[in-house]
Specification:
Order of helices and strands: HHEHEEHEHEHEHEEE
Strand order of the largest sheet: 1-2-4-5-6-7-8-9
Helix content: 25-40%
Shape: globular
Number of helices: 7
Number of strands: 9
Length: about 300
Amino acid sequence: MLLKSTLVALLLTCTTLGVTLPSTLVRREGTTLESVDAADSADAVDANAIDAADASVQEVDASADAAAEEVAAKAGSIRGFDVSQAQAPFNPNFWKCAYKAGYRKAVIRGYRQACGTGGSVDSNFVPAYKAARSAGFTNIDAYMFPCTGTQKSGSCKSPKKQLDEFLKVIKDNKILVHRLWFDVEPTPGRPCNAWNLGKSANLAHAKQWVSELKKTGLKWGIYANAEQWTSMFPSLSSDIGSDLPLWAVQFDKKPGVSTTTRFMGGWKKAMAKQYYLDTSTPECKGSLDLDSFSE
């Protein structure tokens, strides 16, 4: 990686000569160039020139983001993200910043495995929802990551009990969500042991869960990863409820629902795609996953 002082000098020289730097020399994240350290003051350049270099780099970054979003727009997708923790520690103004940056869909974790207690409502759910609404978000979903495996102490609450707890919080707090999602993913080697009942037992348990979801009369969908499917169920074609919409996990960093290519469980298409995991927004930081949605 080039030293900051070298990069600044290179940018200024190329600007003077009318030469455009290759995009490979510009970092995609954290592009703002810091002031030259006091120790490098002998090599320091005029502050106005540094500002000009900053603006040039930021312009390249914005152009790349716009290109990615253009691809998503052509694919008929809504720009969004999902969160499983509070964002304030990363950026106190995260929600307002995200809305201003053009994100229009947010999915918030509302229920978690809660090892040892059999499942519980996520303490961040209501505060995150209120912050999102206050920032301007109206297209909000929520998901539950339920307790589904064997616990080191105690056992998972029944599917109905976990659902009742989740839906009660939604009702009591007058939370308005477009759709609810059921997260199906294993947690091998972790205390909660999600979906570790054995493949046949997992399939039966998943179908029991889907039956309970449908009984609520609410709009539900399934979040799942084709690459994890056969670690939980007998085969790639094992169907737990393909009549419900799919939120597909495909970590390829390509936005757009229509770019989903990996399917399982009877699904032939997706309603949403999680394309970038465990990341942050380039504009507002945070800790989240990036997604594309068709509604």
